Structure formats: structure tokens, C-alpha cells
Amino acid sequence: MTSSHLTPLARRSSEAPAVVIVAPACSDEVARIRSAIGSLGLRAGLDADRLADVALAVSEACANAVVHAYADREPGVLRVTADITPDGLEIVIADEGRGMSPRSDSPGLGLGLSLMASLTSALELRVGEGGGTEIWMVFATHEPGAGTAWATTG
User: Fold this and answer.
1) Is residue 90 exposed (0-12), middle (13-18) or buried (19+ Cβ within 10 Å)?
2) Would you identify the CATH topology of the domain 3-153?
3) Is the pTM of this model over 0.85?
4) What is the DSSP string of 108-135?
5) Which among 20, 59, 85, 88 has most CB atoms closer than 10 A?
6) What pLDDT tens digit does each residue of the chain (154 aa) get?
7) For residues 90 and 118, is the Cβ–Cβ distance under 8 A?
8) How are strands ordered across the β-sheet holding 88-95?
């Protein structure tokens, strides 16, 4: 599966996604976001192992926004959308922060994106319309163990 075959939620249709969360970009919100998306994953028919993958990838994407997006300024917002589509469980986690760039003072190991790529069926990184970063993930419900395709677009 390649990302060229998939259309992120924001470009898919005018229908509202099943989950829409706008929350402060703080660590206290990550569990609530993870729980809401996990509930949707159950409705999509994901098994326990895939739900664990979803939880880890969502936590990593949210943590990236919390730690990196609003560095050196007041925290902004996380915008999370998720839906069940023909491609599977699709999730978009977006911030309005500084965008992706290398940081020599980063507190992490720099493994988050590769971890997310290994857990998802497809991963796409985008620059948001107003700046910031969008991380779009798909967890296929019809292709267990599907290989990951990922791309960076802007």
C-alpha cells in the first residue's frame, strides 16, 4: 500500500470525521485523545495487538507536538481527527507549531517517526495550511501486517 492510493481525511469528503478533538497541546490531554481513538479502533474491528499499535503511535504523535511544536512559546492546540474509512482507521494529528526541523537540544532519541512508520499501514507528514505539522496515519483493517508506506509532503 502506498500513500499515493490514500487520501487523508482532510481531503476525503465534506462529511465530519467520527472523532474530532481540539485540545491544548499538553501531556494531560494525550490519554483522553488515545482513549477516544482507541474506542473508534474497537468499532473498526482492530484486534488487541493493532489497538496497542494505535495507542503507541497516537501517543508518539501527540508527544511530538507537545514537546517540539510549541518549544520556546506558549503551548497551542492539538487538532485530532479520526474516522473509519475503506482504507482502515485513519487518524490526523495536527498542531500549529513551528513545523518540523532538527533540534540539537531535543530531549528525545529521534526515533518517533520511524516508530510510527513501523506501526502504521501508511504514514504521511504534511505542513499545515497555517504552518505547523500534520501527521496522517492509517491502520488497515483489511490487511493484517501490511507494509508501511510513508511520505512527506508540503
Assistant:
1) buried
2) Heat Shock Protein 90 (3.30.565)
3) no
4) S-S-HHHHHHHHSSEEEEEE-TTSSEEE
5) 88
6) 333 334 444 445 557 788 999 999 989 999 999 999 999 999 999 999 999 999 999 999 998 888 888 777 888 999 999 999 988 999 999 999 887 655 555 555 567 778 898 999 999 988 877 788 999 999 998 754 444 444 444 4
7) no
8) 19-24, 77-85, 88-95, 133-139, 122-127, 149-153
